[in-house]
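Honest question from a wet-lab person: if I give you the sequences of every part of a complex, can you actually get the arrangement of the whole thing, not just the pieces? Trying it with mine:
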Amino acid sequence: MSDSNQGAAASTQPRKPFGRILLTGAAGNLGQQLRGALSAWADIVRVSDVAPLGDAAAHEELAVVDLADRDAVHALLEGVDAVVHLGGISVEAPFEDLLEANIRGLYNLYSSAQKHGVRRIVYASSNHVVGFHPTTSVVDIDAPLRPDSLYGVSKCFGESLSRYYFDRFGLETVCLRIGSSFEQPKNPRMLVTYLSYRDLIELVRCSLFTNRVGHAIVYGVSDNRAKWIDNAKAAFLGFHPQDSSIEFEHLFPAGAPTTDLDDPTQRYQGGAFVLAGPMEPKR
Amino acid sequence: MSDSNQGAAASTQPRKPFGRILLTGAAGNLGQQLRGALSAWADIVRVSDVAPLGDAAAHEELAVVDLADRDAVHALLEGVDAVVHLGGISVEAPFEDLLEANIRGLYNLYSSAQKHGVRRIVYASSNHVVGFHPTTSVVDIDAPLRPDSLYGVSKCFGESLSRYYFDRFGLETVCLRIGSSFEQPKNPRMLVTYLSYRDLIELVRCSLFTNRVGHAIVYGVSDNRAKWIDNAKAAFLGFHPQDSSIEFEHLFPAGAPTTDLDDPTQRYQGGAFVLAGPMEPKR
Amino acid sequence: MSDSNQGAAASTQPRKPFGRILLTGAAGNLGQQLRGALSAWADIVRVSDVAPLGDAAAHEELAVVDLADRDAVHALLEGVDAVVHLGGISVEAPFEDLLEANIRGLYNLYSSAQKHGVRRIVYASSNHVVGFHPTTSVVDIDAPLRPDSLYGVSKCFGESLSRYYFDRFGLETVCLRIGSSFEQPKNPRMLVTYLSYRDLIELVRCSLFTNRVGHAIVYGVSDNRAKWIDNAKAAFLGFHPQDSSIEFEHLFPAGAPTTDLDDPTQRYQGGAFVLAGPMEPKR
Amino acid sequence: MSDSNQGAAASTQPRKPFGRILLTGAAGNLGQQLRGALSAWADIVRVSDVAPLGDAAAHEELAVVDLADRDAVHALLEGVDAVVHLGGISVEAPFEDLLEANIRGLYNLYSSAQKHGVRRIVYASSNHVVGFHPTTSVVDIDAPLRPDSLYGVSKCFGESLSRYYFDRFGLETVCLRIGSSFEQPKNPRMLVTYLSYRDLIELVRCSLFTNRVGHAIVYGVSDNRAKWIDNAKAAFLGFHPQDSSIEFEHLFPAGAPTTDLDDPTQRYQGGAFVLAGPMEPKR
Amino acid sequence: MSDSNQGAAASTQPRKPFGRILLTGAAGNLGQQLRGALSAWADIVRVSDVAPLGDAAAHEELAVVDLADRDAVHALLEGVDAVVHLGGISVEAPFEDLLEANIRGLYNLYSSAQKHGVRRIVYASSNHVVGFHPTTSVVDIDAPLRPDSLYGVSKCFGESLSRYYFDRFGLETVCLRIGSSFEQPKNPRMLVTYLSYRDLIELVRCSLFTNRVGHAIVYGVSDNRAKWIDNAKAAFLGFHPQDSSIEFEHLFPAGAPTTDLDDPTQRYQGGAFVLAGPMEPKR
Amino acid sequence: MSDSNQGAAASTQPRKPFGRILLTGAAGNLGQQLRGALSAWADIVRVSDVAPLGDAAAHEELAVVDLADRDAVHALLEGVDAVVHLGGISVEAPFEDLLEANIRGLYNLYSSAQKHGVRRIVYASSNHVVGFHPTTSVVDIDAPLRPDSLYGVSKCFGESLSRYYFDRFGLETVCLRIGSSFEQPKNPRMLVTYLSYRDLIELVRCSLFTNRVGHAIVYGVSDNRAKWIDNAKAAFLGFHPQDSSIEFEHLFPAGAPTTDLDDPTQRYQGGAFVLAGPMEPKR
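Yes, you can. This is the full assembly:
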């Protein structure tokens, strides 16, 4: 980590629950939300992204790293107790890009984490691994995978890879199948998939502090009125969302059902993702 | 619809979510509850029954129709966007009567609705389609059918017929397995099956406004203390009852369990229905 | 039964397992196959149909009866120990016709059977009660009902009605979801759904002689190579088909898959039935 | 019961729901909690233990009885309407001791209860019948038995024996798989398994007053944040815990997960029980 | 083992798969069948019973032992590699007798086996652990326990105890839920539950030689026509029965179903066992 | 395809079921088995590998192609009706190698197949996608993925990607979870996982000729005695293995179970694969 921007020497009083947590994808939308929260739980928060990360807080270590860079990732994991992995691409993209960031990058992360003895990774999976389930159904955490995009396929890969590292080495992972985590829902579909920032942080907290998680899967959705997901089998994590999209329902006044019954963006939980891919590579 | 009693010309400003909703069985107990509610959601509410319907409100069209009358039902469905079907017989009755009202009548409704391009029907099914499940079990929406009466059998028919029209033509239906919807519970069993009028209206609202429902089944029961039903798989409808029979528990003070373990009205969820039929025809 | 054509006085030595079995629909394709077989199991076989039944054998009682005729059906059931009910319509038909033969007729049968103390009915249901399940799935006897036609809906009614008579009165029924029972398969789909006559007779034998059947459901399909059905939960009936459509595969040489992926007659187990209805009434 | 210490003559106005309820294990931790509660529900509460029971209240009958004493237990059950059975050993112990108290004792209880026509027993089973399920799973009431101790095995025996008495004689039982019922959680694991005294009493109330329970199983756990159990299939009992361990979470501040992934007391729901046995007999 | 009757010095060429197998209950019906078979698989077969065991063969060690005698059982297990445990009571009996032979005796067996490092026990459980399932159902190896007798309850205890010893110590057990293993079926019910001696031996062979069994449950039933059981989830054991009760069907010619629908011996899989208990102790 | 070695002009009489089938991985062990079989089903068999393919038969087109070469793969798929995809790496390997051959290569295949309108792909997945399930369990086609190696992870990727292409474009795939397909089993584990060459060919035949397959999963295992897999839900494919490892059991005489209960190669279905990875890249 010699080449990273160390914001500060580690605190001299290591009394927080975790010594060092790594947050990847820290410059992104969700990363910014979690960056602050993690400081309450770890003496040192190592924050990482390919994008600029701003100034380091007193307890932070900054590292600009491309996840596809094997050696850089190996260095990034050194001395880390737990990882919150938001890094990589979180929307549909050309396969080549997903291959580098979400597939090669994830392998680099797990391979390095295992070598460094990291004990747990909180992995930002996505509800898009089941996005081709119909909107007239409810999926639990054992539902068959139905990715709705190449992005969704890359997240299926992450769930498989992390399962392997748990079965093989005992490296624990919680796969968060995050819905739509924004300031507020942006369209009617997100009334169902909305995850508030506060609930996201609570979900990460549960994922880090539950004493044993094994290889767990849990949907990241607030306590919205309508639900496509069922977390009953993940109750051991103790996640209870406090927010709901109900307060935003006025933004999208209820109308009669849309009339094109065959419109895949309405038929499937993945919404617009189901038509977004596959994208051609940018040349 | 030329022969029906038009309460008023259609509103000149069609800005409600639905253009025209048909409410059948409007003169009945539940029909009266819903008649008012529907006016908030549709420019025109066509209200229908075999019994007198009183005066038409400004936005209403009144139609006295026998559901067994094929041509009359065909006319009734003209220009309708969605149907809330409470019509027919809602208690045990001689088979001949159920055959006309609930079987032939339902076929007339669906056949006509399909021809007129109606998109969705909210169908008053009943928990009596599973009334022969024991009171010591909890049924979800996939539980095997166990009708407790010929009435229950007629409602099974309705669920099958509506499933066919969805699979065949995409005509959506929400089957409401309504429990005991009255002002208040009338006996101890209804503490379990009670559905408040307010929750009934909310259930119909969810059934009409959820963007996609396919062919859905949901139990219509308030948030009572003891439950024989589990709506988890219908969570996509977003139905959350607001009322509970708890406020009425004082009406039926708890006693020791009844002593006849073989009493079918106590053993089975259907209560007195399980002994009510089959009735002989009235001659 | 005074007005029926009694083929012979009952045997003076009633030593067969059953005293009197009623066979309805005896003039039809399957009825003719079973008519002979039943004579080995009952002292008297009462054979019935709306169509002519030919001459009565020594042990037979003939009765030309319209199932929709309540009083005639009541008389038909007198003195009967068990029923093999093939009567009614076995293809898609206008609703009015199905209503009379398969709905009203079935009620007449069960109502009369219960009053006469009949103990068991073997009911010819159909695989068309699940015909809208895809051909890329396997349905067991608890699969959700997905009728593919109004005919299929009428068979769903029969399964519900017979369930009610069992739960209410203990009148046992075996619902045979018969596939395609012909001399030989008539098209490629029937290679999957074929039921040989010999296997049909064996299935009826198991249904009559198993000591307890309760309300049972079983698929009637021979031991064909590809299967859409799974009878594992009906193993208590002891049905083991002896024949297979393999010997007829040469009639329909394998080709590449058909190219229209959306063709419902190829997508769904019901085949051509899924498009056959609803039929308009004959006027 | 002539030799027991009768606290008082039975009330002359038998107007409570139950005439006489027997409470065994009344001197224990939970017994003391329930002893008072039962007085509201029964004219007479017969309280029993091998340990001293203090003074009898006005409505109480006291009986010091060893459950392994067949004749004494027979006398204990005379005139009893319902039993709340907390008696026996509730921790890991040498097999000989469990055999006498929890196996022979339970047989004595059921055998006598059946002979005296007792209608219902509320049986203190334990979550230790499933204690070898991992802490990364959620068990419902149909989960395979995985006892974590000889104590747990003895409770499995109780569940089987009571099932037999229900199937054979209709003697109803509710098996309460009680978690950790203390004034407050004593360690971090109990944050998950905590059952408040108030919720325990409510659970017993539901178990006694639900009109039909058959042979029911329900977990006794408060509304804690993290859960290893799922009572959805027992919803017919109407148990809704009012308390939660959340108020005690400050006693056990969250730390990073413990590091020995193979530690069975952390891997399995049974906690320390999984290593506590088998104990050698005391000689 | 100094006080037991050593039939012969151990073979000097220990080349069979097992060194020493213990067979308990060797004097019983099934014990006699297995006694010979085991000699092919173990250098030494230690045969045990409370009843006389006849002469020892060259490779045999004889031990007359009461399973309730803790010290004797401890000695019995010394030097044993695997156990085939048929000992104890195999019919309904007074609880006291079952307590000694099947509960205390089984604890003695497992406790001693664990201390001596025995690796695997093949345990004769019984289909009577599920005997209160109806004859109109098919139970798989995860079906809820429904013992039909105190004997059945004692076998449930054995399944729980052995599960505990596996989860706690890794001592493997195969629970054989043996049906009716006799020379031939003795009544019509046994046409369903028949297990030929040859198939019993094959089942024990699979149970001993499968490399890993964990804690397994499997039904011991031949390839009979009608089946109440489903071994699909135990396919890893490789048990394929070679015999069938079909060859004995002529002994019990098929008749019409028995007429008393409520007769529990006909309604439940356990047959006469469901009424046999509880037996009073012999005094 | 101008740069590939055309073995012969296409037949002038295109009367076989398929016009052109592409076989990838044709130089490998299984490829050689299938190369001949395919000629009976397609007018032209395009055979491909990175390794030399020998001489082209009269009906063959030869193409030496690296699957990671996007443009070459695109050309390879031109004019193809169906694909049998055995290409890629079929053992544990460094991640970089798997990434190119099994991940990038598979994307290239599906992307190109979709653009060329290919209708169906038979994809050689592997039982190593579930290899971390214990050998004491039976997995069906809906079992949770438990890859036992990075190779297994790469096959999970293939199952997800092909699912996406089916849901998105209707491109059908049969995922063959092939066990151990060799001339004969090479070790005791393969007695369970053995798939004869003849059964492999039959499995491919079923996968190509079943009229609709959607996205199907099926295990490729012969009719061996012990089984870890259950194909019941794939019965619509009509696969019935004709061979069994029984004839090879003499090669691995049964011994007592191995003694290290914790040996992962014995505990898990994947055998030696569970320890084989992750491999370091070759540098």
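Two things worth pointing out. Residues 2 and 114 of chain D are 21 Å apart (CA to CA). The longest strand of chain D covers residues 42-49.
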